[in-house]
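Please decode residue identities from the backbone states below.
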């Protein structure tokens, strides 16, 4: 992987002008129609990040027909202030997060969400003014932004806003006025290098110093920008890290313990609710973007992500879950070091909400036809899902693009087919694997590979009440909760552990 770069010394007007020539094209066909996905030469299917052409056509057709819950989901979109065609961007040359003068990253995430929401609104409603607004926002940023800086939080900014920028741009990449080549250059030189570097060096810290969500922001950015820029090597790096990465964001480190009831213990549940939900949302985002290119991470390792998502859904709704004490090393390489032990699942507020569940629930229950009791319940309680601007004013309310009720509600698929297509196959609907309980054995290179209990994909016990939340940086949970008028819930929810009924797959 390449090291962090300083793009301001490399970007020139001449190069941008040359690159623009690769990016012109026609606007998407009439709203509500389907078309063969456009595929870059020897590259990926486009649009093909969180939304395929078939997905966009489905949304438009369902809304036009007045179908529930799409109409309610679309109403959430049209009511959001970011989704208005009068939005004016405020691009910056340098974005700072965590330190630096000024800390202006809020300008970036507000503009990213305005671009995404206007682009999505165009595809569903058909008003070209929204496409034009999205393009104007995106072009203004690619013409000006040269770096993302700050404290360690700069890696969060690069990861979160990099994957979101790629998704917004993917929706208008064929618009005749969109500066595709220049935008690809910005993603490749400003965002992806920071995320790539983080996955390799972890900001020169011990690999377990950073919790799960840090890794997953970086994986999401590397994967999204790789697909957007048709960079197969970059996509392969992201997929490999998801499966085998040494940090806490790889799937078997994020979900280190499997239980006989079908739940997979989410590591960051021992930290707090907001960051655990962020991690689940990011892992779902990574899985969805990969799926739309024929890469099945949802089903990887015997659908391990399903088990982790079910665990977090149950816990977030107030249900009791087990938590196995986990000690992680902290500190800098060749510097200070220490350790920290999470001994119980943190307390939760069942009224907290975050727009992550529709995407995950619909994949497992509709595409794959599996039972996922807690996912189904929490998705219903969270509907209709909104987006950036609907979940508080701080950065945590902008960590996910949202609008899952509109975007990811789907009809139940026909009987399962064969396994998904290989990397790079231009398909918008990879065939799912038949079950979530098939053998998940992996090669010897997997962390903790070996036999593990075969368990049902979903427990049937009913949880108490309902809920979930938002946030990234260390100080956002309190600020977000206060802004949303939520109360803090003290105490953890912990079921007495049966040590003989769990196994740990992460080395101590």
């Amino acid at each position: 992987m390449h090291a962090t770069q300083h793009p301001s010394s490399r970007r020139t007007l001449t190069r941008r002008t040359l690159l623009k020539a690769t990016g012109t094209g026609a606007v998407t066909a009439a709203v509500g129609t389907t078309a063969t996905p456009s595929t870059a030469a020897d590259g990926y299917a486009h649009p093909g990040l969180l939304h395929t052409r078939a997905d966009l056509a489905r949304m438009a057709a369902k809304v036009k027909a007045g179908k529930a819950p799409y109409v309610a989901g679309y109403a959430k979109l049209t009511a959001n202030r970011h989704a208005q065609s009068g939005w004016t961007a405020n691009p910056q040359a340098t974005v700072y997060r965590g330190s630096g003068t000024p800390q202006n990253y809020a300008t970036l995430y507000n503009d990213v969400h305005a671009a995404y929401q206007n682009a999505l609104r165009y595809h569903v409603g058909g008003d070209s003014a929204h496409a034009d607004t999205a393009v104007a926002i995106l072009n203004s940023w690619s013409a000006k932004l040269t770096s993302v800086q700050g404290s360690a939080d700069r890696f969060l900014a690069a990861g979160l806003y990099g994957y979101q920028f790629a998704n917004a741009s993917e929706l208008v990449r064929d618009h005749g006025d969109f500066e595709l080549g220049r935008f690809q250059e910005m993603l490749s030189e400003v965002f992806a290098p920071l995320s790539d570097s983080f996955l390799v060096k972890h900001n020169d810290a011990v690999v377990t110093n950073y919790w799960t969500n840090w890794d997953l922001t970086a994986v999401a950015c590397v994967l999204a920008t790789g697909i957007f820029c048709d960079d197969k090597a970059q996509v392969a790096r992201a997929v490999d890290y998801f499966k085998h990465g040494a940090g806490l964001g790889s799937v078997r480190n994020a979900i280190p313990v499997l239980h006989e009831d079908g739940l997979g213990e989410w590591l960051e549940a021992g930290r707090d609710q907001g960051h655990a939900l962020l991690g689940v949302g990011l892992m779902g985002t990574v899985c969805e973007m990969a799926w739309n290119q024929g890469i099945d991470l949802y089903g990887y390792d015997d659908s391990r992500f399903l088990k982790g998502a079910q665990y977090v859904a149950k816990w977030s709704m107030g249900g009791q879950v087990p938590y196995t004490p986990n000690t992680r090393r902290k500190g800098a390489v060749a510097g200070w070091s220490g350790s920290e032990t999470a001994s119980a699942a943190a307390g939760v507020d069942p009224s907290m909400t975050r727009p992550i569940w529709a995407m995950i629930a619909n994949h497992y229950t509709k595409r794959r036809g599996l039972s996922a009791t807690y996912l189904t319940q929490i998705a219903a309680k969270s509907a209709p899902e909104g987006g950036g601007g609907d979940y508080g004013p701080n950065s945590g309310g902008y960590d996910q693009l949202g609008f899952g009720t509109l975007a990811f509600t789907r009809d139940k698929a026909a009987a399962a087919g064969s396994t998904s297509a290989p990397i790079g196959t231009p398909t918008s609907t990879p065939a799912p694997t038949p079950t979530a309980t098939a053998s998940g054995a992996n090669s010897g290179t997997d962390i903790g590979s070996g036999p593990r209990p075969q368990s049902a994909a979903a427990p049937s016990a009913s949880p108490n009440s309902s809920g979930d939340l938002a946030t990234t940086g260390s100080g956002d949970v309190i600020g977000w909760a206060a802004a949303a008028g939520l109360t803090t819930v003290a105490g953890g929810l912990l079921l007495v552990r049966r040590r003989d009924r769990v196994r740990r797959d992460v080395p101590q």
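Observation: Confidence is low (pLDDT under 50) at residues 1-40, 416-508.
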